[in-house]
Amino acid sequence: MHTDLVAALDIGGTKIAGALVDRQGRILVRAQRPTPAREDGETVMRAVDAVLDELTASPLWQRAGAVGIGSAGPVDATAGTVSPVNVPGWRDYPLVSRVRTAAGGLPVELIGDGVAIAAAEHWQGAARGHDNALCMVVSTGVGGGLVLGGRLHPGPTGNAGHIGHISVDLDGDLCPCGSRGCVERIASGPNIARRALDNGWRPGPDGDTSAAAVAAAARAGDPVAVASFERAARALAAGIAATATLVEIDIAVIGGGVGKAGEVLFAPLRQALTEYATLSFVHRLAVTPAQMGTDAGLVGAAAAALARSADAAVAAV
Length: 317
Ligand SMILES: [Zn+2]
Description:
Layout: E1 5-11, E2 15-22, E3 27-34, H1 41-56, E4 64-71, E5 75-76, E6 81-82, H2 95-102, E7 108-112, H3 113-124, E8 133-138, E9 142-148, E10 151-152, H4 183-187, H5 189-198, H6 211-219, H7 223-247, E11 251-255, H8 263-276, E12 286-289, H9 296-316
Parallel strand pairs: 1-4, 4-7, 8-11, 11-12
Antiparallel strand pairs: 1-2, 2-3, 5-6, 8-9, 9-10
Helix pairs in contact: 1-2, 3-9, 5-6, 5-7, 6-7, 7-8
Bound molecules: zinc ion.
GO molecular function, one term: glucokinase activity
Family: Belongs to the ROK (NagC/XylR) family.
Protein name: Glucokinase
């Protein structure tokens, strides 16, 4: 059987998306269900099964050789389990074996959603052509993934590059992860908005207190909104600089809702990087907005499945 496609699953707290993807990263078939995130684990799995049922019903399914899953984390690729923070019904949930069964025994590759985004940006987006990259998602949370030496670096459990929970403020606020002063605790959308509100910023007549509303206020010159984005930018810069110093990345790509804030975020971020990324070998570090759209998770999961297929082919020679 000629298997020139892979199946991809993108599993998040609000939706479960699936696709059949070709070797150029084109999505040929897609399916989607809302995530019943507050339900029990088997109910959530039924939504995954419904997505897979749609994919397996396609005549193109016969050409699928592997399944890639990008899931909200934490994931454990070694154990084949997931424990997404926003899906309490899944704790050490054996997603890989369940998907393998539903997919007729195809090999399954599991990575975290941040790692999937990195795979997608490296394959087709802003990190294309860069052998050493950190790709981040800054939205409700802060996640990320690494490309090192030209290859995706998921780490043993599939979570490497999770920059949101690097501490950049030793005595900072407690983070839901249990640590203090994490990048996410300062730079996520809700934390940007919270800090602006705490310091006296007030929303407009529409009552919108999202980070996007704070970004709009910052663009209009509101000093409290500007300061909240500057603080987030400094936290991101400290985390990016630490990453660059450790593993010599040459580009950091920032996506997610906060990444769309534009120069309100990127101008202070570049400035802060000059303060934190100080050694000669990280001076040329670039930061740039992500290019992949809402399909990044699917494309990245497909990339991981294709890479696994390629490794298996090499191993079989
Ligand atoms: Zn944390």
